[in-house]
Amino acid sequence: ISVLCKAINTAVESETQSGVKKDAPILPFRVGHGFDLHRLEPGLPLIIGGMSIPHDRGCDAHYD
Hints:
GO biological process, one term: terpenoid biosynthetic process
Low-confidence stretches: none
Distance between the termini: 25 Å
Strand content: 15-25%
Number of helices: 1
Protein name: 2-C-methyl-D-erythritol 2,4-cyclodiphosphate synthase domain-containing protein
Number of domains: 2
Organism: Taxus chinensis
Oligomer: single chain
Domain 2-C-methyl-D-erythritol 2,4-cyclodiphosphate synthase: 29-64
Helix content: 25-40%
GO molecular function: 2-C-methyl-D-erythritol 2,4-cyclodiphosphate synthase activity
């Protein structure tokens, strides 16, 4: 992460010093959103975002 921050800071500093807009660096990650749909089955744990939710049913799913 520190290398990434340094690369971004360097790009911003060089742009502000030269006054010429430059292309943004290509970052090694993408940001977005999505959703999953899973059947809830009796007797399975319900875990959402790593948090165990007290419920009589849980997710019938395979996680990689």
